[in-house]
Structure formats: structure tokens, C-alpha cells
Amino acid sequence: MKVKNYSLLVFFLLSISFQATAFQASNDSTKKYKVVLDAGHGGKDWGTRGAKLKEKDVVLPVTLKVGEYLKKFTDNIEVIYTRTKDVYSHPKVRAIQANEAEADLFVSIHANAMPKGNEGVYGTETFVMGTKNEGLNFEVAKRENSVILLEENYEEIYQGFDPNSPEVDIMFEIQQEAYQENSILLASNIELQFKTRAGRKSRGVKQSSLWVLWNTAMPSVLVEIGYLTNPKEEKELSSATTQDYIASAIFRAIRDYFEYLDQTQN
Ligand SMILES: [Zn+2]
After folding, report:
1. How far apart are the CA of 94 and the centre of ligand 1, in A?
2. Structural domains for the chain
3. Which pTM does this prediction carry?
């Protein structure tokens, strides 16, 4: 009887000590991460468009869903949206918002387009900041950066930002290069999730000098969820089910990214 009690006591003490260890471990991992979710464009800035669908309208529900999943299924990630409605906010404000919040990650969500005659092109792409603006990547940079031209005092606000200037190369080395490894890590997982779990055609991870990525002081990616100029993909992207698949893919990639940081940094 005594022995039995003793073993119960040992079990009890062990379980307390196990709980204390677990508590400590969970304390260590309760580090709050902040992610800024940026639904591209909005208001007067429509972004690109297909036959019917406007970029600003399709990226908003996808972005909001990513945030909902993060709030529902993780307890250590705080979500900050740059917009939750159809309102205009220029890229500088979005980047400043992320920097001021001292966010750990910036994820900008967009939809893509091709010039006429290339309607057959479809699939997803995730961009990280880079200065290799070759070919079609430069087309994306021109289009996604073009909103900055909507500003009347463009020169003053953007201080002559020119994606092709050598100055951008130098600023890039100072700013986003430090975060590039982590940006690529997240971007690769987003594309992998798109391909393996969301049934999308992944066109891969690419580099481009995108203004909003250039100005954020944290790992940052810009996701192009598909081509509105491809009729089949435009139709798919307008369905809530496809939007949901895409949002869950981005959610899983963000969740895994922070889990990876927890595992490697603790
Ligand atoms: Zn866009």
C-alpha cells in the first residue's frame, strides 16, 4: 500500500514537474509575432482587371480570410490589416504602417495580368524584393508600382523612386537584403502550398523591385494569386471556394514560417 502511495507521489511530482516544464516551454513560445496583411489596391486604385473581376475586389476577401484563419488557428500571431474595406491607401502608408507596428512579416496580396495576346498565361507567383528586373518581372514591377503615379505630389512622396536606378540597388543592399533569406523561405512555402494543397499552377518565386517591398523593414513578400487576364483563372478566382483554398494555403505558409522561427531561434 505504502509503495503504491509512494509511486503515486512520484507520479504526481513528475507530472507537476512535466507541467512546469511544459508551461515554461509554452511561455518561451508565446512570443507574439505580428503579421501585416496587405490587400493590394482599393478605392480609386483598381489594380488590374479581367473581363469582370477587379483586382482590388478579389484580393480583399482572400486577405481577410488569411487573417481569420491566423486568428482562429494560432495563438501567437497578431494580425494587422492595411485595409478591411474598399478604400484607397497608398503604398507608402502601407509600408509605414508595417514599420511603425514593428511587424515581423509583411504579406501583400495581389492578382496578376498579361498584355493582350497572352491570355493563355495563368498561375501564381510570389515576389521578394530584388533588383533583377528582367523581362516579365519588370512588367509586374511597372504595373504594381504604377499606383504611385496616381499621387499628385508623386516626386515629393516617392523621392524619385526609379526601379532601375543604381540607387535602388544600394538601398536594397542596406534594407531588404537583410531580410531576403526569410522572405524567400516564406515565398517558397506559399508557392509549395499553392501547388500541393490548393491545386494552383505555381510559376514560382521571383524577384522584382516592388515599391511596397522595398520600403518595409521586415521580411516581406508580394503574392500574385493568379491571372485575371486568363478567362478560366478569372472565373475560378471569383469563386468563394477557390478564394478559400488560396487563403488557407497562405495561412499555412505563414503559420509554418513562424513555427520554423520558433524551432530554430529558441
Ligand atoms: Zn496589384
Report:
1. 13
2. 32-265 (3.40.630.40)
3. 0.80
**pLDDT for 198-227, tens place per residue?**
999 999 999 887 877 878 889 999 999 999
Q: How far apart are CA 110 and CA 129, in angstroms?
A: 15
Three-state DSSP state, 127: strand
Q: Which amino acid would we find at residue 29?
A: S
20 Cα–ligand 1 center, Å = 48
Tens digit of pLDDT for each residue in 240-264? 999 999 999 999 999 999 999 988 8
CA of 145 to the centre of ligand 1 (A): 8
Task: Tell how far the Cα of 77 is from the centroid of ligand 1, in angstroms.
Answer: 25
Strand order across the beta sheet in which 77-81 lies: 77-81, 33-39, 105-112, 220-227, 124-129, 202-208
